[in-house]
Amino acid sequence: MSAHSPMPRSAWMFPALAVLLFAAVSATGYVFTLSLGGLVFAIVLLVILFGTVFAAVHHSEVIAERIGEPFGTLLLTLSVTIIEVALITTIMLGDKPAPELARDTVFAVVMIVCNGLVGLCIFIGGLRYREQGFQVSGANVYLSGLIALATITLIMPNYTLTAPGPFYSTLQLGFVDLVTIVLYGVFLYTQTVLHRDYFINQTGDEEGGGSHLSGKMLALSIVLLLISLLTVVLLAKKFSLVVDAVAALIGAPPAFAGLLVALLILMPEGVSAIAAARKNDLQKSINLALGSSLATIGLTIPAVGIATYAFDQPLVLGLNPQNTALLFLTFLLSMLTFGTGRTNVLFGLVHLVVFAVYVFMVFVP
Question: Which keywords, in A-to-Z order, does the entry hold (predicted)?
């Protein structure tokens, strides 16, 4: 949504409802249970939580139009990452510890983004424009960082000797957290300072056009963005209870929780990426998609690692052979897809097929 449009009601209404819901739950000491009342609460919570996440992304977009690319996309990515870290750590350290949730969520994000979202954007763009272009240099920067980080965090733990896989020892995890943050920091410097032109639409439309946004509206969006992020973090505990209850009710496999969390945090960003592809701005779609994957590993894994160390909880990171094969296939396809600077319908369909296989294997491993 353009920053020039009037602020939609949902952009301030859902953050306000989230604040009221958290205040009501805290004041009454409400405890979620599987009952009719619990079902109503779960529906209300999910609607408000989804709405608040969308509101956070809207305000991020408003601010992003003012500051221009690639800083705008970076702000969107960081906002979503804050929500992701809050949800993962809350569920992992809840009443029913889930040491594998971070791994499942990070892997789900990579699969959803690099196959589902990228595939859908390319497919839609291919149907509408036959071919779409983007900066190969920028895509290569994303992929090089993503492949390195994914291998270090999701595959290497299965082959360490100090601690039996799929775990890292405390010293190993600390070192991995450090190099992960350093690598992501260098990527940010490359994206925002050193090679900004790699991540900007080839038409040269670098500025978001938000210079006409009033200072009052900008300040309001900043405040509402902070409120949205804070309320999502505060409601994460109740969301974790709902996830546990739903998973137990339908007999879902452990990876279902990671998939659900990933879908929640990626849905608003995915809508923005698809809208950009429909407007023939595949570069922005790639920035949103691959940037969110890179931020998920580069920021989420270190944050969760620090949290699990502080609370003395185990952290499972290594993927099983089946998921390792899917990850390898995803990166191989991505290198081919982003290797020429032009995409078409077939590239998108191939990624969508791989995503369908991933979702099917979650429920029928």
Answer: Membrane, Transmembrane, Transmembrane helix
SS3 content of the chain, % helix, strand, coil (to 5): 80, 0, 20
Instruction: Look at residue 333 and tell me whether its pLDDT is greater than 60.
Output: yes
Residue-level pLDDT at 72: 66
Token readout for 324 is 């390792």
The tokens describing 137, both together, are: 């240099």
Q: What is the DSSP string of 111-136?
A: HIIIIIIHHHHHHHHHHHHS-EE--H
Give CA–CA dist 353/250, Å, rounded.
Answer: 25
Instruction: For the chain, give the number of residues.
Output: 365
CA distance 235 to 22: 7
Mean pLDDT of the chain: 83
DSSP lists the bridge partners of residue 119 as none
Helix-then-strand count for the chain, H and E: 13, 2
Tokens of 331: 């990166």
* The domain over range 9-363 is classified in CATH as 1.20.1420.30: yes
Q: Which residues lie below 8 Å from residue 306, measured CB to CB, with a gap of 6+?
A: 177
Q: Which long-range contacts (CB under 8 A, 24 or more apart) does 35-42 make?
A: 38/245, 42/242, 42/245, 42/246
Residue 209 confidence (pLDDT) above 60: no
Helical spans, DSSP H, in 33-93: 36-67, 71-92
- Taking Cα atoms as reference points, which of 288, 174, 218, 238 lies closest to residue 44? 238
Contact (CB, 8 A) for 73 and 200: no
Residue 18 near residue 231, CB atoms below 8 Å: yes
3-state secondary structure at position 342: strand
pLDDT value for 5 = 55
Q: With H, G, I as helix, E, B as strand and everything else as coil, classify residue 316.
A: coil
What share of the chain has pLDDT > 90, as a percent? Answer: 25
